[in-house]
Specification:
Strand order of the largest sheet: 2-4-5-6-3
Largest sheet: 5 strands, antiparallel
Mean pLDDT: 89
Strand content: 25-35%
Low-confidence stretches: none
Number of helices: 4
Shape: globular
Helix content: 25-40%
Oligomer: single chain
Order of helices and strands: HEHEHEEEEEH
Length: about 190
Amino acid sequence: MSQRERFWLGTPPGPTPEPADINQPRTIAESAVVTSRPATSQDANGHGNLHGGVIMRWIDETAAMAAVKHCRRPVVTARIDRLDFIAPAYLGHLISIYASLSYVGRSSMTVDVVVTDEDPMTGRVATICSSDVVFVALGEDKRPTAVPPLVAANAEEAAKMERARLRRERLKHIEQELAKVEEAGA
């Protein structure tokens, strides 16, 4: 059966991949995902722009695809470490979501996301949002399971991974400090 016939029949283009070998490192590029969608009136807020909650859902969906591609297992969103809205997204524009892994723990994966708004009439592209989303891979028993390590293919990827590692260490430190404050106040 041709790829076109598979597409029209709703059949996947190839065999279903097995879960990733957790001992086989994977690069950032192997799991990177880009999705694009038009900003339509059904997604508008009261200001006539794309609703932030819609963007959040698209971020979660695209980032989850990157995490699944890395581990070849189901994933769940564990947390959104940050979500920064920089500029509005306009109706009629093309919204693109770029997701790629930046950090991998034993069962968790941090996915960096950048969202852009492109005016199709002028070609102007602006970054409108960025986020870091953490996912946990699930085994057949629906419990956290190990994922393959992440390796850098070049110096730029190594720097991205180091920034993510440092960010994760700082977040852990902040959480520990907040726990101390809560214990002292209890």
